Amino acid sequence: MADRPHPDRDLIQGEWTEKTLVEKLLEPVEKPPPRPWRVIVAVGFALTLAWLYAIFVTFVQGLGTWGINQPVAWGLDIVHFVWWIGIGHAGTLISAILVLMRQNWRDSLNRLTEAMTFFAILCAATYPLIHMGRPQNFYWVFPYPSSLAMWPQYKSPLSWDVLAIMTYITISILFLYLGLIPDLALLRERSQGWRRKLYGWLSLGWTGSAVHWQRYRAVYVLLAGLATPVVISVHSVVSLDFAYALVPGWHVTIFPPFFAAGAIYSGFAMALTLIIPLRRWYRLEGVITERHLDWMAKVTLAAGLGVAYIYLLEIFIAWYSAEPAEWAQQVWRMTGPYAPYYWAMMLINVVLLQTLWFPRFRKNLTWLFIFSILANVGMWLERFVIVVISLSHDFLPGNFRLYFPTWVDWTLFLGTLGFFLFGLALFIRLFPPIAVAEMVHLFHKLRKH
Amino acid sequence: MLYGLMAYFDSPERLLEALRALRGAGYRHLEAFTPNPVEGIEEVLGGDGRIPWVAFALGVVGAGLGLFLQIYTSLDYPLNAGGKPLLGWPAFIPVTFELTILTIAVGIFLYLLYVNGLPLADHPAVRARSYVRVLLDEYGVLVYASDPRFDLEGTKALLETLGAEVEEVRRA
User: Fold this and answer.
1) How, if at all, do strands B30-33 and B165-170 pair?
2) Residue B167: beta bridge partners?
3) Which residues, other chains included, contact A188 with Cβ-Cβ below 8 Å and sequence gap of 6+?
4) Dist. CA B23–CA A250, nearest whole Å
5) Which candidate among A36, A57, A275, A299 keeps its CA 20 to 30 Å from the CA of A139?
6) A167 to B121: CB separation less than 8 angstroms, yes or no
7) Strand partners, B9
8) CB within 8 Å: B37 and A186
9) Chain B partners of A16 at a C-beta cutoff of 8 Å?
C-alpha cells in the first residue's frame, strides 16, 4: 500500500511467492535429509543408549557410582540440571518476549528454539530425578494425601522448584504445540499414509477458519505473556535453591537476576550453535539471514554483559561484606586447585565476550559458531564454580574436600547431549523447524504492505 | 449432498470485501478460511472478546488453589522450620504464582479448543478439492447451502463478480 518498502523487508531475502516459500520451509520434512542429519541421528542415538546405561548403573548400584561426597553432595548432576534449564530459556524468550515486542525477526527462529527448550527441559528434569537416590519415590514431591500423613514443605525452595519446572515444561509444550497446529493442518493436506494420519490426529482437525484464527491469536499472545514471567521465575527459583542455603559463595541476594542473565546468555548461545549449521545444511539463508544472527549475537552480548557484571560484583561483595568465610571462598576460587576452571570461565564469559561488540566478529559466522560453543562451555564452568567449588570449601577446614566426577557422571552428561541432538534431529524431520504459517504471514506483511 | 460453495480469493483485502458484500446481501451461514490471521476480520464476522476474561477468571481460581494448597498443608502438618511463622505468606508467593500461571495456561488452551469446536474429525470445507490452497496462499469463503439466501446459480454469480474462483462442495 505504501510506496516505501517495509523496514524489515530484508528479513526474507530472495525471490519467493507464498507457494515457493512454503515448499522451501517444508523441505526438512518432505525431502530426504542431508547427510549430516544422518550422522547426528546416529551419534545422538549411540549417546542416548550410553545415557540409558549410565542411568541403569545408577539405579542398580546406587549413587555411590557418582563422584559426590560430603560436603560436595551436589556434583555434576546439579551442574547439568542448572545448565540445561538455562539453555532452555532462550526458546521461550525468543517466542514469548519477542512476540509481545512485535519483533518480526523472531518468526524465523521461534519454532526451532521452542523445540530446543522442550528437549533441554527434558534433559534437565532427569537430573534431580535420578539424583534423588530413590527415584521410584519421586511422587513424594507432589501433594497427595498419603498414609504417611505428610505434605511437601512449601516453605522450601526445593518444592518451589518442582512446581516451577513442571509449570515451565507444561507451558513450553503448550506454546510449541499451539504454534504447530496450523502447520500440522497444512502437512496433513500435503502428506499420505502414516504421516497423514499422524498429522491428522495432531492437528485436531484445524481448518483455518478465520474466526478460529482470531481466537487462536488471542490465546497465543496470552500464553506468550504468561510464559515470559515463568521463564524469569524458573531460573530465579532455581537460584533460590542455592541462595536459601548459608554456604559461602551461594548466599548472595543477586542470585535470581544472575541466574536469569546466565540462562539467557547460554540459551542464545545454544540457539546459535544449532541454527548456524542448520541454516547451512538446509540452505535456509533466505529466511535466517545474517541480520537474524546479528540480532542473536547482540542479545547474547547483552545477557553476557549482565553475567560478567555480576562476576565482578560477587568479588566486590565478598570483599565488602568482610565475612571471612565468604572472602576465603572467593580466594579459593581464584587460587585453589579449581582455579583453572574459574579463570577459564572468566576468560570466556568476560574477555572473549567483548568481541561481540564489533560487527566484524558478529558477522563472522565461523567465530560466532565457535564463540557460541565456548559460551556454553563458559556457562558450564560457571555452574561448576557455583556448585562444586562453593561446596568443596565451606566453613570448617576439616570439611574441605575435592570432588572427582566418575565415568558415570560424564556418561550421564554426554548422554543428555546425545539425547538432545537426537530428539531435535527427529523433531525437524517430523515437524517444520521454521513456523510456516507465521513466515507466510510475515512474508505477506513485508511484501504486500 | 451439496454443502455449499467454496470461493477462493487471492488476497485478504479481497476476502474482507467479499465478506462485507455477502453480509450486505443478507447471507448469514458462511465461514472464512485463511492461511494466517486476517486483521479486521472481527468487524465482519464478529470478534470474540471473552478470552481475556476467561483467562482472568482462571487466574483467580489458580491463585486461590495455590494459596489453599499451601495453607491447608501447613496447618495439617505443622512444621517448625527455623522458627518461621507457620503461615509465612511471603514464602507462599512462588508456588501461588506458578499455580496461577499453570491453571491459566492449561485452562485457556482447553477453552480455545472448546470454543473452536476442536478436535474435529470432519468438516465440509476439507472436502473441497482445492481446500489445501486456503492453508497455503489463498483466502476462502464457504457459503453453506443451508443459508436461507442460498441459491446455487445466484450465489455463484455473486461470488464470481466479487472476483473469486468458485467450487461446489459436495459429500464424497
Assistant:
1) unpaired
2) B6
3) A196, A199, A200, A203
4) 66
5) A57
6) no
7) B139
8) no
9) none
